[in-house]
Specification:
With 351 residues, the chain is of the alpha/beta class. The strands form three sheets. A six-stranded parallel beta sheet has the order 10-9-8-11-12-13, with helices on both faces. Helices cover 44% and strands 16% of the residues. It starts with a helix and ends with a helix. It folds into two domains: 143 residues, Rossmann fold (3-Layer(aba) Sandwich); 198 residues, 3-Layer(aba) Sandwich (Rossmann fold). β8, α6 and β9 form a beta-alpha-beta unit. α3 crosses α4. The chain has twelve helices and 13 strands. The structure holds nicotinamide-adenine-dinucleotide (NAD). The site of nicotinamide-adenine-dinucleotide has 26 residues, from α5.
Protein backbone atom coordinates (compact mmCIF):
# COMPACT_ATOMS: atom_id res chain seq x y z
CA UNK A 1 0.00 0.00 0.00
CA UNK A 2 1.44 3.38 -0.97
CA UNK A 3 1.26 6.17 1.56
CA UNK A 4 0.63 9.65 0.18
CA UNK A 5 0.21 13.00 1.90
CA UNK A 6 -3.30 13.15 0.43
CA UNK A 7 -4.41 9.72 1.71
CA UNK A 8 -2.93 10.32 5.15
CA UNK A 9 -4.77 13.61 5.55
CA UNK A 10 -8.02 12.21 4.16
CA UNK A 11 -7.94 9.30 6.60
CA UNK A 12 -6.72 11.05 9.75
CA UNK A 13 -9.09 11.52 12.66
CA UNK A 14 -6.97 14.28 14.28
CA UNK A 15 -7.69 18.02 14.42
CA UNK A 16 -5.47 18.92 11.50
CA UNK A 17 -1.96 19.27 10.17
CA UNK A 18 0.20 22.36 9.74
CA UNK A 19 2.63 21.84 6.86
CA UNK A 20 5.43 23.90 5.47
CA UNK A 21 8.31 23.27 3.09
CA UNK A 22 11.50 25.06 4.16
CA UNK A 23 13.12 25.86 0.81
CA UNK A 24 16.44 27.03 2.30
CA UNK A 25 17.22 23.59 3.77
CA UNK A 26 14.88 21.31 1.78
CA UNK A 27 13.06 20.33 4.99
CA UNK A 28 9.41 19.32 5.27
CA UNK A 29 7.87 20.61 8.50
CA UNK A 30 4.78 18.80 9.79
CA UNK A 31 2.89 19.70 12.96
CA UNK A 32 0.23 17.07 13.63
CA UNK A 33 -2.47 18.41 15.96
CA UNK A 34 -4.29 15.34 17.22
CA UNK A 35 -6.62 16.24 20.08
CA UNK A 36 -7.33 19.27 22.30
CA UNK A 37 -9.96 17.82 24.65
CA UNK A 38 -7.72 18.28 27.71
CA UNK A 39 -5.68 21.29 26.56
CA UNK A 40 -3.54 22.67 23.75
CA UNK A 41 -1.80 20.02 21.61
CA UNK A 42 1.72 19.65 22.98
CA UNK A 43 4.49 17.30 22.01
CA UNK A 44 8.14 17.07 21.05
CA UNK A 45 9.86 18.00 17.82
CA UNK A 46 11.54 15.09 16.06
CA UNK A 47 14.27 15.84 13.52
CA UNK A 48 15.06 12.95 11.21
CA UNK A 49 15.84 11.94 7.64
CA UNK A 50 12.81 10.05 6.23
CA UNK A 51 12.51 8.09 2.98
CA UNK A 52 9.59 10.36 1.92
CA UNK A 53 7.56 13.36 3.21
CA UNK A 54 4.51 11.09 3.54
CA UNK A 55 6.34 8.73 5.92
CA UNK A 56 7.40 11.76 7.98
CA UNK A 57 3.80 12.94 8.21
CA UNK A 58 2.68 9.44 9.17
CA UNK A 59 5.24 9.44 11.99
CA UNK A 60 4.05 12.87 13.20
CA UNK A 61 0.41 11.71 13.18
CA UNK A 62 1.19 8.46 15.02
CA UNK A 63 3.32 10.24 17.61
CA UNK A 64 0.71 13.01 18.01
CA UNK A 65 -1.98 10.41 18.77
CA UNK A 66 0.43 8.84 21.28
CA UNK A 67 0.79 12.20 23.03
CA UNK A 68 -3.01 12.41 23.47
CA UNK A 69 -2.89 9.10 25.33
CA UNK A 70 0.19 10.09 27.33
CA UNK A 71 -1.26 13.40 28.59
CA UNK A 72 -4.62 11.78 29.41
CA UNK A 73 -2.89 8.93 31.26
CA UNK A 74 -0.94 11.32 33.51
CA UNK A 75 -3.95 13.61 33.90
CA UNK A 76 -2.22 16.82 32.84
CA UNK A 77 -4.18 19.39 30.89
CA UNK A 78 -2.44 19.20 27.55
CA UNK A 79 -3.62 17.73 24.27
CA UNK A 80 -1.91 15.48 21.76
CA UNK A 81 0.36 16.81 19.05
CA UNK A 82 3.81 16.27 17.60
CA UNK A 83 6.10 17.94 15.10
CA UNK A 84 8.48 16.39 12.63
CA UNK A 85 11.25 18.21 10.80
CA UNK A 86 11.97 15.88 7.88
CA UNK A 87 15.46 17.05 6.99
CA UNK A 88 17.30 15.93 3.83
CA UNK A 89 20.43 15.29 5.94
CA UNK A 90 21.51 16.00 9.53
CA UNK A 91 21.88 19.78 9.65
CA UNK A 92 24.54 21.57 11.67
CA UNK A 93 25.67 25.12 12.45
CA UNK A 94 23.97 28.09 10.80
CA UNK A 95 21.81 25.92 8.57
CA UNK A 96 20.33 24.19 11.62
CA UNK A 97 19.83 27.46 13.52
CA UNK A 98 18.13 28.97 10.42
CA UNK A 99 15.69 26.08 10.12
CA UNK A 100 14.90 26.08 13.85
CA UNK A 101 14.33 29.85 13.83
CA UNK A 102 11.90 29.65 10.89
CA UNK A 103 10.19 26.67 12.56
CA UNK A 104 9.96 28.66 15.81
CA UNK A 105 8.27 31.53 13.95
CA UNK A 106 5.75 29.07 12.53
CA UNK A 107 4.94 27.86 16.06
CA UNK A 108 4.61 31.46 17.23
CA UNK A 109 2.16 32.21 14.40
CA UNK A 110 -0.13 29.51 15.84
CA UNK A 111 -0.42 31.60 19.05
CA UNK A 112 -0.45 28.66 21.48
CA UNK A 113 -2.31 26.11 19.37
CA UNK A 114 0.83 23.95 19.62
CA UNK A 115 3.60 23.75 22.22
CA UNK A 116 6.79 21.74 21.84
CA UNK A 117 9.95 20.36 23.45
CA UNK A 118 12.78 17.96 22.62
CA UNK A 119 12.33 14.61 20.94
CA UNK A 120 14.61 12.26 19.01
CA UNK A 121 17.06 14.25 16.89
CA UNK A 122 16.60 17.55 18.73
CA UNK A 123 18.40 18.79 21.83
CA UNK A 124 17.75 21.22 24.69
CA UNK A 125 20.07 23.63 22.82
CA UNK A 126 17.76 23.44 19.79
CA UNK A 127 14.86 24.40 22.06
CA UNK A 128 16.88 27.38 23.25
CA UNK A 129 17.17 28.54 19.62
CA UNK A 130 13.42 28.11 19.07
CA UNK A 131 12.69 29.94 22.33
CA UNK A 132 14.29 33.10 20.89
CA UNK A 133 11.26 33.54 18.62
CA UNK A 134 8.40 31.85 20.46
CA UNK A 135 7.31 31.27 24.04
CA UNK A 136 5.49 28.03 23.21
CA UNK A 137 8.49 25.88 24.12
CA UNK A 138 8.79 23.59 27.14
CA UNK A 139 12.03 22.91 28.98
CA UNK A 140 13.62 26.34 28.53
CA UNK A 141 13.74 29.12 31.08
CA UNK A 142 13.60 32.08 28.71
CA UNK A 143 14.90 34.50 31.35
CA UNK A 144 18.01 32.56 32.37
CA UNK A 145 18.49 30.56 29.16
CA UNK A 146 18.66 27.38 31.25
CA UNK A 147 17.38 24.21 29.65
CA UNK A 148 15.97 21.07 31.25
CA UNK A 149 16.86 17.62 29.95
CA UNK A 150 13.73 15.42 30.21
CA UNK A 151 15.77 12.17 30.00
CA UNK A 152 16.55 11.72 33.71
CA UNK A 153 12.89 12.44 34.62
CA UNK A 154 11.75 9.87 32.08
CA UNK A 155 14.26 7.41 33.57
CA UNK A 156 12.88 8.09 37.06
CA UNK A 157 9.33 7.33 35.86
CA UNK A 158 10.45 4.11 34.17
CA UNK A 159 12.25 3.10 37.37
CA UNK A 160 9.01 3.67 39.34
CA UNK A 161 7.19 1.58 36.71
CA UNK A 162 9.73 -1.25 36.96
CA UNK A 163 9.39 -1.38 40.74
CA UNK A 164 5.59 -1.47 40.50
CA UNK A 165 5.63 -4.21 37.85
CA UNK A 166 8.20 -6.25 39.79
CA UNK A 167 6.07 -5.97 42.91
CA UNK A 168 3.03 -7.14 40.96
CA UNK A 169 4.87 -10.05 39.35
CA UNK A 170 7.02 -11.21 42.27
CA UNK A 171 5.23 -9.86 45.35
CA UNK A 172 8.09 -7.55 46.38
CA UNK A 173 9.60 -4.44 44.82
CA UNK A 174 13.02 -5.33 46.19
CA UNK A 175 15.31 -5.11 43.16
CA UNK A 176 18.18 -6.98 44.77
CA UNK A 177 17.08 -10.37 43.44
CA UNK A 178 16.21 -9.05 40.00
CA UNK A 179 18.06 -9.07 36.70
CA UNK A 180 17.17 -6.17 34.38
CA UNK A 181 18.14 -5.90 30.72
CA UNK A 182 18.39 -2.23 29.73
CA UNK A 183 18.44 -1.89 25.93
CA UNK A 184 19.67 1.52 24.76
CA UNK A 185 21.90 3.52 27.09
CA UNK A 186 21.26 7.09 25.98
CA UNK A 187 19.51 9.95 27.71
CA UNK A 188 17.01 7.64 29.41
CA UNK A 189 18.69 4.22 29.49
CA UNK A 190 21.93 5.58 30.98
CA UNK A 191 20.37 7.21 34.08
CA UNK A 192 17.93 4.28 34.39
CA UNK A 193 20.80 1.78 34.53
CA UNK A 194 22.42 3.84 37.28
CA UNK A 195 19.19 4.01 39.33
CA UNK A 196 18.66 0.28 38.97
CA UNK A 197 22.22 -0.45 40.03
CA UNK A 198 21.79 1.81 43.05
CA UNK A 199 18.58 -0.07 43.87
CA UNK A 200 20.58 -3.32 43.94
CA UNK A 201 19.48 -4.85 40.62
CA UNK A 202 21.79 -7.01 38.52
CA UNK A 203 22.14 -5.52 35.07
CA UNK A 204 22.45 -6.75 31.53
CA UNK A 205 23.19 -3.90 29.12
CA UNK A 206 22.97 -3.66 25.35
CA UNK A 207 23.32 -0.85 22.85
CA UNK A 208 23.83 -0.58 19.10
CA UNK A 209 26.94 1.29 20.15
CA UNK A 210 28.62 -1.72 21.80
CA UNK A 211 31.41 0.44 23.25
CA UNK A 212 28.81 2.47 25.11
CA UNK A 213 27.39 -0.70 26.69
CA UNK A 214 30.82 -2.07 27.54
CA UNK A 215 32.09 1.13 29.15
CA UNK A 216 28.93 1.58 31.28
CA UNK A 217 29.11 -2.09 32.31
CA UNK A 218 32.71 -1.56 33.37
CA UNK A 219 31.87 1.64 35.25
CA UNK A 220 28.97 0.04 37.16
CA UNK A 221 30.81 -3.21 37.86
CA UNK A 222 29.33 -6.73 38.13
CA UNK A 223 27.33 -5.99 34.97
CA UNK A 224 27.17 -7.82 31.64
CA UNK A 225 27.20 -6.16 28.22
CA UNK A 226 25.56 -8.06 25.36
CA UNK A 227 25.83 -7.68 21.59
CA UNK A 228 22.60 -5.99 20.40
CA UNK A 229 21.48 -8.90 18.18
CA UNK A 230 21.79 -11.51 20.94
CA UNK A 231 20.34 -9.37 23.70
CA UNK A 232 16.67 -10.45 23.35
CA UNK A 233 17.55 -13.95 24.38
CA UNK A 234 19.43 -12.77 27.49
CA UNK A 235 17.73 -14.35 30.52
CA UNK A 236 16.37 -11.62 32.82
CA UNK A 237 13.41 -10.73 35.01
CA UNK A 238 12.78 -7.35 33.39
CA UNK A 239 13.42 -6.26 29.82
CA UNK A 240 13.58 -2.43 29.60
CA UNK A 241 13.49 -1.29 25.94
CA UNK A 242 14.98 2.23 25.95
CA UNK A 243 16.21 2.50 22.37
CA UNK A 244 13.87 2.29 19.38
CA UNK A 245 10.21 1.35 18.84
CA UNK A 246 8.75 -1.92 17.51
CA UNK A 247 11.18 -4.19 19.39
CA UNK A 248 8.22 -6.28 20.57
CA UNK A 249 7.06 -8.18 17.52
CA UNK A 250 6.20 -11.61 16.14
CA UNK A 251 9.91 -12.52 15.85
CA UNK A 252 11.25 -11.13 19.15
CA UNK A 253 8.40 -12.09 21.51
CA UNK A 254 8.95 -15.88 21.27
CA UNK A 255 12.67 -15.23 21.96
CA UNK A 256 12.19 -13.19 25.14
CA UNK A 257 13.36 -14.76 28.38
CA UNK A 258 11.85 -12.23 30.79
CA UNK A 259 8.79 -12.04 33.03
CA UNK A 260 8.18 -8.28 32.72
CA UNK A 261 8.64 -5.59 30.03
CA UNK A 262 8.85 -1.96 31.17
CA UNK A 263 10.78 0.64 29.16
CA UNK A 264 10.87 4.14 27.77
CA UNK A 265 10.84 3.56 24.00
CA UNK A 266 7.78 4.93 22.23
CA UNK A 267 5.56 2.50 20.29
CA UNK A 268 7.24 -0.68 21.55
CA UNK A 269 4.62 -2.97 20.00
CA UNK A 270 5.15 -3.35 16.27
CA UNK A 271 1.46 -4.17 15.72
CA UNK A 272 -1.62 -4.36 17.99
CA UNK A 273 -1.50 -8.20 17.96
CA UNK A 274 1.78 -8.07 19.90
CA UNK A 275 -0.15 -7.21 23.08
CA UNK A 276 -1.91 -10.59 22.76
CA UNK A 277 1.36 -12.38 21.95
CA UNK A 278 2.95 -11.09 25.18
CA UNK A 279 -0.17 -11.89 27.19
CA UNK A 280 -0.29 -15.47 25.88
CA UNK A 281 3.34 -15.97 26.84
CA UNK A 282 2.57 -14.73 30.37
CA UNK A 283 4.88 -11.71 30.01
CA UNK A 284 3.64 -8.69 31.94
CA UNK A 285 3.77 -5.65 29.65
CA UNK A 286 3.63 -2.07 30.93
CA UNK A 287 2.13 0.16 28.18
CA UNK A 288 4.90 2.51 27.04
CA UNK A 289 2.97 5.77 27.29
CA UNK A 290 2.05 5.00 30.91
CA UNK A 291 5.65 4.56 32.06
CA UNK A 292 7.60 6.92 29.78
CA UNK A 293 5.75 10.11 30.73
CA UNK A 294 8.25 11.35 33.36
CA UNK A 295 9.92 13.90 31.08
CA UNK A 296 6.57 15.17 29.81
CA UNK A 297 5.30 15.51 33.39
CA UNK A 298 8.40 17.45 34.48
CA UNK A 299 8.39 19.84 31.53
CA UNK A 300 4.60 20.23 31.58
CA UNK A 301 4.59 21.09 35.30
CA UNK A 302 7.50 23.52 34.89
CA UNK A 303 5.60 25.32 32.14
CA UNK A 304 2.63 25.61 34.50
CA UNK A 305 4.87 27.35 37.07
CA UNK A 306 5.72 24.36 39.32
CA UNK A 307 9.39 24.78 40.27
CA UNK A 308 9.59 22.55 43.36
CA UNK A 309 11.81 19.59 42.47
CA UNK A 310 10.22 17.46 45.18
CA UNK A 311 6.73 18.12 43.82
CA UNK A 312 7.88 17.21 40.31
CA UNK A 313 9.57 14.04 41.57
CA UNK A 314 6.43 13.09 43.47
CA UNK A 315 4.31 13.39 40.30
CA UNK A 316 6.86 11.39 38.30
CA UNK A 317 7.08 8.69 40.97
CA UNK A 318 3.27 8.42 40.90
CA UNK A 319 3.71 6.63 37.56
CA UNK A 320 4.39 3.53 39.68
CA UNK A 321 0.99 3.76 41.41
CA UNK A 322 -0.82 4.44 38.10
CA UNK A 323 0.79 1.39 36.53
CA UNK A 324 -0.04 -0.75 39.57
CA UNK A 325 -3.74 0.21 39.25
CA UNK A 326 -3.72 -0.73 35.57
CA UNK A 327 -2.02 -4.06 36.27
CA UNK A 328 -4.56 -4.94 38.96
CA UNK A 329 -7.51 -4.03 36.71
CA UNK A 330 -5.98 -5.95 33.79
CA UNK A 331 -5.43 -9.03 35.93
CA UNK A 332 -9.03 -8.93 37.20
CA UNK A 333 -10.26 -8.69 33.61
CA UNK A 334 -7.78 -11.37 32.47
CA UNK A 335 -6.59 -9.11 29.65
CA UNK A 336 -3.43 -7.38 28.44
CA UNK A 337 -2.70 -4.14 30.35
CA UNK A 338 -2.69 -2.46 26.90
CA UNK A 339 -6.50 -2.69 26.73
CA UNK A 340 -6.94 -1.54 30.34
CA UNK A 341 -4.73 1.51 29.73
CA UNK A 342 -6.73 2.38 26.59
CA UNK A 343 -9.92 2.38 28.68
CA UNK A 344 -8.34 4.66 31.32
CA UNK A 345 -7.43 7.11 28.56
CA UNK A 346 -10.90 6.95 26.96
CA UNK A 347 -12.53 7.62 30.35
CA UNK A 348 -10.34 10.69 30.92
CA UNK A 349 -11.01 12.06 27.44
CA UNK A 350 -14.75 11.73 27.95
CA UNK A 351 -14.82 13.29 31.42
P1 LIG B 1 19.00 8.53 22.90
O1 LIG B 1 19.10 8.79 21.44
O2 LIG B 1 19.65 9.43 23.87
O3 LIG B 1 19.56 7.03 23.21
C1 LIG B 1 19.18 5.92 22.47
C2 LIG B 1 20.26 4.85 22.64
O4 LIG B 1 19.78 3.66 22.00
C3 LIG B 1 21.60 5.20 22.00
O5 LIG B 1 22.64 4.89 22.89
C4 LIG B 1 21.65 4.32 20.74
O6 LIG B 1 22.97 3.94 20.39
C5 LIG B 1 20.84 3.13 21.19
N1 LIG B 1 20.20 2.38 20.10
C6 LIG B 1 19.66 2.88 18.96
N2 LIG B 1 19.14 1.87 18.23
C7 LIG B 1 19.36 0.73 18.92
C8 LIG B 1 19.06 -0.64 18.69
N3 LIG B 1 18.42 -1.03 17.59
N4 LIG B 1 19.46 -1.55 19.63
C9 LIG B 1 20.10 -1.16 20.75
N5 LIG B 1 20.42 0.13 21.01
C10 LIG B 1 20.06 1.05 20.11
O7 LIG B 1 17.42 8.39 23.17
P2 LIG B 1 16.67 8.60 24.56
O8 LIG B 1 16.33 10.03 24.73
O9 LIG B 1 17.43 7.87 25.63
O10 LIG B 1 15.30 7.85 24.28
C11 LIG B 1 15.24 6.45 24.24
C12 LIG B 1 13.84 6.01 23.85
O11 LIG B 1 12.89 6.50 24.79
C13 LIG B 1 13.37 6.55 22.47
O12 LIG B 1 12.53 5.59 21.88
C14 LIG B 1 12.55 7.78 22.84
O13 LIG B 1 11.55 8.08 21.86
C15 LIG B 1 11.90 7.31 24.13
N6 LIG B 1 11.51 8.41 25.03
C16 LIG B 1 12.47 9.28 25.48
C17 LIG B 1 12.10 10.31 26.34
C18 LIG B 1 13.13 11.29 26.88
O14 LIG B 1 12.81 12.01 27.84
N7 LIG B 1 14.34 11.35 26.33
C19 LIG B 1 10.75 10.44 26.75
C20 LIG B 1 9.81 9.51 26.29
C21 LIG B 1 10.20 8.49 25.42
Amino acid sequence: MTVSLKSLIEEWEGIGVVMRYDRQTGTWIFIALHDDTLGPPTGGTRMKVYPSPALALRDAMRLGAGMTRKWAAVDLHYGGGKAVLAVPRILQGEERVGLLTRYGRLIESLRGTFGTGVDMGTTPDDMLVISQVTSYVHGVDRETGQTIDPGPFTARGVFAGIRAAVKFAYGSEDMRDRVVHVQGLGDVGGPLARMLKEGGAHLVLSDLDTRRAESLAEELGDTEAFEPHTAYAAPCDVYAPCAVGATLNAESIPELKCRVVVGSANNQLQEPEDAGRLFERGILYAPDYIVNAGGAIALGLRSRGVTSQSEIHERVDAIGASLAEILIEASAANESPVYTAERVVERRLKR
